[in-house]
Write a structure and sequence with these properties.
- With 261 residues, this protein is an alpha/beta fold.
- It has two domains: 79 residues, GMP Synthetase, Chain A, domain 3 (2-Layer Sandwich), CATH 3.30.300; 171 residues, Rossmann fold (3-Layer(aba) Sandwich), CATH 3.40.50.150.
- Helices cover 25% and strands 35% of the residues.
- The chain is built from seven helices and 13 strands.
- Strands 9-8-7-10-11-13-12 form a seven-stranded mixed sheet, sandwiched between helices.
- β5 and β6 form a beta hairpin.
- α2 packs across α3.
- The longest helix has 15 residues.
- The protein is globular, with a radius of gyration of 19 Å.
């Protein structure tokens, strides 16, 4: 039995259950509720994430139909409903690692920002950041993002924008020191936007990708090719496996220095 917990003792938590062949979901859900008294709902994962909003199909097995929670990590809080928005509690460490790289005075763009976890983490870990702009297409996620900015008191540092990055980013080309692209499946389709949003002479791109043993090599090739098409040069700096999807497949992050001009 595998499950993720999203939430806290303050708001209650929701468990996202993954069952293997032969497992009884109902019994597993009851066992989770017995072991974790603050869990108010258990949702069964019945398929992979899909669609523009990256939502996972979930079915309520037991507990409260109200699945909105407040999730806590590293000193900040995030309100969300996992049935309406994309959120991974497994990536709290990844968010901290990114936030710790940001320097005072930077302007940062978070594409596919969700309910704001990366943007808020950056503002909390680096209070001297100039601005963090987060773009999100899912209206429910955007509304939570706005509320989370208020709840964490980072209104002067974090700017949520509702919209498609294809429509929003061109007006901000050449204005960011750092760009995050935390969309592992499909981020490569938006590489032109991420690269063009950086300003010279050097910018940092955090590119997320999904694949097997050679995923980082594929990502490096992909980013390098797109950069050349745009007249830019990139230098790979670092890569890491962020989380496992399945045996021998991972979500990875590759960091690049982008040389402009």
């Amino acid at each position: 039995m595998r499950f993720d917990l999203i939430g806290s003792r303050e708001s209650g938590a929701v468990a996202i259950l993954y069952v293997g062949e032969g497992e009884d979901p109902k019994k597993a859900a009851e066992e989770i509720m017995r072991r974790h008294r603050h869990v108010k709902s258990v949702l069964l994962r019945i398929g992979p994430r899909n669609g523009t909003y990256r939502l996972r199909p979930l079915v309520l097995l037991i507990g409260d139909e109200d699945t909105e929670v407040i999730h806590k990590e590293h000193g900040y809080r995030l309100k969300l409903d996992p049935t309406k928005v994309y959120f991974s509690p497994r990536e709290a460490t990844e968010r901290r690692l990114i936030a710790e790289q940001v320097s005072p005075g930077e302007r940062v763009l978070v594409m596919f920002a969700g309910v704001g976890p990366f943007a808020i983490a950056i503002a909390k870990f680096q209070p001297k950041v100039k601005e963090v702009v987060g773009v999100e297409i899912n209206e429910s996620a955007y509304k939570y993002f706005v509320e989370n900015v208020r709840m964490n008191k980072v209104e002067g540092k974090v700017k949520p924008i509702l919209g498609d990055v294809r429509d929003v980013c061109p007006s901000m080309f050449g204005t960011f020191n750092r760009v995050l692209m935390p969309l592992p499946k499909g981020a490569y389709e938006f590489l032109d936007l991420g690269l063009m949003s950086l300003k010279g002479p050097k910018g940092i791109l955090h590119f997320y990708y999904w694949g097997g043993e050679k995923a980082h090599q594929e990502a490096i090739t992909m980013v390098g090719q797109k950069a050349r098409e745009l007249g830019l040069r990139v230098e790979p700096l670092f890569w890491r496996r962020v989380s496992a999807y399945s045996p021998r497949k991972w979500k990875i992050r590759v960091d690049f220095r982008v040389l402009i001009g």
